[in-house]
Amino acid sequence: MRPADASWSAAPSGLKLADDNVHVFAAPLDVPAKRLEELEQWLSDDERQRASRFHLERDRRRFIAGRGILREILGTMSGVSPASLIFAYGEFGKPHIAAPVAARLLQFNLAHSDSIAVYATAKRTLGVDLERIRELDEVEQFAARFFSPDEEQRLLTLPDAQRREAFFNCWTRKEAYLKAIGTGLNNCIRQVEVSPGPGETAERLGVPDGSPRWRLHSLTPAIGFVGALVVQPEDSPVNCWHWNGPP
Fold first, then answer.
1. pLDDT, tens digit, 9 for 90 and up, residues 9-65
2. Is the pLDDT higher at 181 or at 60?
3. Which domain holds residue 189?
4. Could you tell me if 13 and 119 lie in one domain?
5. Do residues 119 and 164 share a domain?
6. β-sheet with 107-113: strand ranges across
């Protein structure tokens, strides 16, 4: 299993979004009670109601933390109050900022797995995904359903010790692309081919005809997790940070 990527460092103070930069933040969702109170103050009434509907206290706390951190990051990057942000959603659920006007140029995407979340921000289209590497009994069945024949073949020829990581590499890279273009897990997922192998450079090997060019980045924010970022245009500089509150 690969180590956490050493290129992730603490987010610096005064961080703002330059036109050509992409910033990716990783944050823990299991936070102390005092930190959770700080984050909950940014939530909208609707988000508080959604939090109250979770049956498990752990899930309620992680939802509050995840939404509060999202607002905290976006507020910091756009220079507005986190509580003032209003979100809207596309046909397949991709979020964007509807208000205030000062923040509407900022685009973002997020993903979470267990106790970690990642947030990608830019003034350009992007998508991000994250998964914890874990036991999965039906790898072959999932691969047959969602992977292209070439991806499935490459996956099944790997040693068992590498197969789980390769599966989640492939899944997150495909999912990040679909999130970037704002569509769901439909038949298109098998047409999006990526490099799945552990240690391989994250590459997009094939997409449906007519698709624009994108850059695919591998993300390793913590030991035991793999993720992917897809961004357009290809030459966008990407910066990775750990987020534990406004610097």
1. 999 988 887 778 999 999 999 999 999 999 999 999 999 999 999 999 999 999 999
2. 60
3. 131-227
4. yes
5. no
6. 9-10, 238-242, 22-28, 116-122, 107-113
- The pTM (predicted TM-score) of the whole model is 0.91
- Ranges of H-type helices in the chain: 33-40, 45-52, 57-78, 139-146, 149-156, 160-181
Whether the pLDDT of residue 1 is over 50: the answer is no
Residue 210 is given by DSSP the state T
* Cα angle value 125/186/129 (rounded, 5°): 45
Residue 2 lies in a domain: no
- Three-class DSSP category at 127: strand
Q: Does residue 225 sit in helix, strand or coil?
A: strand
Strand 22-28 relative to strand 116-122: parallel, antiparallel, unpaired?
antiparallel
pLDDT tens-digit map of 145-171: 888 888 898 888 888 888 899 999 999
Q: Is residue 145 part of a domain?
A: yes
Specify whether 23 is located in the same domain as 98: yes
